[in-house]
Amino acid sequence: MEANHGTLGAPIWVVVGPTAAHEVRWSDDATQKNIASAAWPPEIRPAATAIVSYTYAYWGDATGDGFLSNSGAINCPAFSKDNYFWARFNWDNTGTFASAPIFTAYLSSAHAAITRQNPDGGLLQGSADTKPGASAFSYLKGNAWGRVDSLGAPGAGPANAPVVTDGTVGSVSPAAGANWLVNFQSLMGDLDYITAPFTPAATAANTWSLEYALFTGPNMLPALYLVVMTLKYTWT
Amino acid sequence: MVSGRSWWQCRYSDGRVLSEWDTMTTKILLPINSGSTSRWETVPKDHMVGLRLLCPNGRAGEVAAPEGHKFLQLKVGWMDVGLGGQGGRACAAHIIGVVRDISGHCYCWAWDTGKGKLIEFYDNIYNMQYQHIGRLSLEVQGIKI
């Protein structure tokens, strides 16, 4: 996966995984550039649900800056759905997909099954904060573009900004073509996820545009969360 | 197997046998796991009548059909981006199968890499429930129904 730490007009894509020591971090502070992971500041659990505004791309333990931060020249801007060059999955031309790839998140690289709201308040398991109806959703939300970028990358963001209760049980897909999901999807392992509306062409390098946002709330369990965002895919 | 991974091997009605290591994109065509992806999509499907999954624990699964273009083979896995956690890539399972009817029902074997176990199951190529894979690309698999 690559993240844009340049600007919307001049994206600069930096690898945030799966390479070792490359990762995505969140903070409620806009100035967390080049901070060692051991010194990453905690966030106080808020009294009301809120988005965790600042997303950072790290390509070394103490080397990184904010998404859309003009290579760190400015403080990390707050999340905006209109930053349509946000992140993207990328792949080379050495393999062939056998089905449509899936965008989701797991508690760890063990990819164990997730139980909704168990424990209550887990980042991916959800809580009353993320429960608009019968089902609690993940605090982590995702959106994805309806085609590979070589057929036309996004020129605008999704219709709706993410909200803490966003989610649909099971799989959702953006309409094939120049479309985002209208609403963001909960990223919760094999329970809630996004399936691409396409199987990428064989032996062809390409990218798939994404947005994602993290929320928190008064019912979130205080913890050090070390989850993974995942492209689940098949190949021949 | 010394490679520690599973391999497919297909057979044809004229007795020919083609193994996955013969189709690797690297130059050393041996089952030693030194390499790159195979090319199932370019493997001839005419007159293919059997497909085996050779597993590292010495077991094998096999599916058969009286005619070609009924077989499927794929791997499923993950590419993880760490959010403070550990990123990486992993193969969850290696799957073979044969389509049984025009509705897409299929009979499959999978080598589950996490459990180190060969499993047998029934599914449907139009919406594979195993590992939540969803619809398979029939073009890539060379399946004709």
What this model shows, in words?
The complex is a heterodimer of chains A (236) and B (145). Chain A is mainly beta. Chain A has strands at residues 2-4, 13-15, 23-27, 50-51, 54-60, 63-66, 87-91, 102-106, 140-144, 170-172, 185-186, 192-195, 206-216, 227-235. Chain B is built from one helix and eight strands; from the N terminus they run E-E-E-E-E-E-E-E-H. Chain B is globular. Chain B starts with 6 loop residues before the first strand and ends with a helix. The model of chain B has no long low-confidence stretch (mean pLDDT 91). Chain A binds chain B through residues 1, 16-20, 22-26, 37, 40, 89, 94-100, 102, 105-106, 108-109, 111, 171, 190, 193, 195, 199, 202, 224-236, and chain B through 25, 36-41, 73-90, 92, 128, 131-137, 140-141. Strand 14 (227-235) of chain A pairs antiparallel with strand 5 (71-83) of chain B.
Low-confidence runs of at least 5 consecutive residues of chain A: none
Q: Specify the number of helices of chain B.
A: 1
Q: Gap between N and C termini of chain A, in Å?
A: 21 Å
Helix and strand run of chain B:
EEEEEEEEH
How much helix, percentage-wise, in residues of chain B? Answer: under 10%
Radius of gyration of chain A: 17 Å
Oligomeric composition of the shown chains: heterodimer
Number of strands of chain B: 8
Q: How far is the N terminus from the C terminus of chain B? A: 34 Å
Sum up the overall morphology of chain B in one term.
Answer: globular
Q: How many domains is the backbone of chain B divided into?
A: 1
DSSP E strands of chain A, number: 14
Helix content of chain A: under 10%
Mean pLDDT of chain A: 97
Q: How would you classify the helix and strand content of chain B by structural class?
A: mainly beta
What is the overall shape of chain A? globular
